[in-house]
Amino acid sequence: MKNVTYSVLLLISFFLQACYIGPSLQSSVTILDRSSWKADPAKSFKSQTPDKITVHHEGTFFDTTNKDAREHIKHIQQWGMGKDRNWADVPYHYFIDYAGIIYEGRDVNTVGEANTNENLDGQIQIALLGNFEEQEPTPRQIHSLETLLAICCQKYSISPDKIKTHKDYSVTQCPGKNLSKYFEDGTIKKQVKKLLDQ
Ligand SMILES: [Zn+2]
Known about the structure:
Bound molecules: zinc ion
CATH class: Alpha Beta
Order of helices and strands: HHEEHEEEHEHH
Number of helices: 6
């Protein structure tokens, strides 16, 4: 009888874990926390409940041979929190570098920032490093983006239909034509749905 109870508990625990974040999703990407890029503490912020996701390119051409992603993210924070912008933190909730490594940015429960002035409330902001008007995202970036989108959809109960890009909200080229094409032809949404169905 004890064994049966134990097995049932084990089954329930597996089921709950699978509901939270599917192990296959989490294990196929690397997500590093803020200490990886030596983040400064955030200033006070406006809170939000995430209910949609917006994808950006960071906008700086990414030279994969000599640029360190962590240093670059730290620089974005220093610039954004400085006199020019006076933001509470980095503008995005996640960054994805050219190798597909995901970095945590701003707290997901706080409203992001943008250079354009649309209402950002509820949006999880994901930025891929690079300028996709000028260069192509790497296959690893695309894989990590699709996986992170699926993780966020699952974790915050967001429908994949609520995934958009910056230019869906504002007059901007962001996230660049070479990334936008995967949203316009439905490739990314289809893959996210497939990952969520696994
Ligand atoms: Zn953008």
